[in-house]
Amino acid sequence: MISLNSPLKNNNSDFIGAFASGLCLIHCIATPFIFIAQSCSATCCDSAPTWWKAIDFLFIIISFFAVYFSAKESSKYWMKYALYSSWFLLLLVIINERIELLHLPEGSVYIPAIALIGFHLYNKKYCQCKDKHCTTSLS
Fold first, then answer.
1. For the whole model, what pTM was predicted?
2. Of the candidates 122, 12, 128, which has an alpha carbon nearest to the alpha carbon of residue 136?
3. How far apart are CA 38 and CA 21, in angstroms?
């Protein structure tokens, strides 16, 4: 369990969230190239290794905690919804890729990942409370 005095709470959650989302994006971009390289090798397989697929869920867990702490400390009310919405959309796209409920374009995972990076960076720069008595504004 993460304590309330952890470094994650002290304005690092936006950096960690943007970094984790960026790594997730790189992971998603690299996957097709790995499949191409794998299909050209002599010992080809039909799917990605289990550990490679599990990385998606590691990123989504890290991102959740980053979103939680970033939203908790944000001074803008709309930013909380933006962070949680983009995270939830990323989760849905990743789950959909596993169970293939809907046929979505391969690049659909990039949109919520890039949005999550952007919202974390925006929140870090423009939505930080400057004192202990900061209240969430509706703007």
1. 0.70
2. 128
3. 25
